[in-house]
Amino acid sequence: MHIHDFQEMMRRLYFSRDIERGTKGNYSWLVEEIRELEEALDKNSRKEIEREFADVLAWLVSLANTVGVDLEKAALEKYDRVCPKCRTCPCQCKF
Ligand SMILES: [Zn+2]
To answer: What pLDDT shows up at residue 63?
Structure first.
């Protein structure tokens, strides 16, 4: 499944609720899920880490749907097989 397909699936599942919640509401949920991912990483619980990554991706996609961004298109426009800064793969940018 591509990111675009996942985003369309999430649109079918949740779009009406996402629109009702609004951009700020969806953004707040994304931030909350990132915080929960941090907790899972701190606990080093593989199952929880996987679940929280799934939640972060789901809320990121919901937020993108709310503002009409095609996440796959946006990601591949910026990260098209090379680093967007140094234009090489792997990245040669200095830390
Ligand atoms: Zn680079």
So the answer is: 97
Note the pTM of the prediction, 2 decimals. 0.91
Q: The tokens 């591509």 sit on which residue?
A: 2
Instruction: Give the residue ranges of the chain where pLDDT is below 70.
Output: none
Residue with tokens 């907790």: 39
Q: What are the percentages of helix, strand and coil residues in the chain, rounded to 5?
A: 75, 0, 25
DSSP 40-69: HHHHT-HHHHHHHHHHHHHHHHHHHHHHT-
Ion ligand 1 residue ranges (Cβ < 5 Å) = 83, 85-86, 91, 93
Give the tens place of pLDDT for each residue, 41-57: 999 999 999 999 999 99
CA–CA separation, 84 and 64 (whole Å): 21
**Ligand 1 mean position, distance from CA 78 (Å):** 12
φ and ψ at residue 84, rounded to 5 degrees? -65, -15
